[in-house]
Write a structure and sequence with these properties.
Strand order of the largest sheet: 2-1-5-3-4
Structural class: mainly beta
Oligomer: single chain
CATH superfamily: Beta-grasp domain
Helix content: 10-25%
Strand content: 25-35%
Length: 66
């Protein structure tokens, strides 16, 4: 199915979760925030949140500083 991640079209298998997608992208879940269709998805829900056709995701890497 077709989704958009950070404004780039991407094909994923049906049943893919946000956690699956982050693993596929090589991203560490602890250090990213994910917005799905303009709503923030809590990290605790990444493994249960299945993606749907035409979902739009923004994945932002958290950067610490001081």
């Amino acid at each position: 199915m077709q989704i958009t991640v950070n404004d780039e079209a991407r094909e994923v298998a049906a049943g893919t979760t946000i956690a699956d997608l982050l693993e596929e992208l090589g991203m560490r879940p602890k250090f990213v925030a994910v917005e799905r269709n303009l709503e923030l998805v809590p990290r605790a829900r990444h493994a249960e949140c299945k993606l749907a056709e035409n979902d739009r995701l923004e994945v932002v890497t958290l950067v610490g500083g001081g």
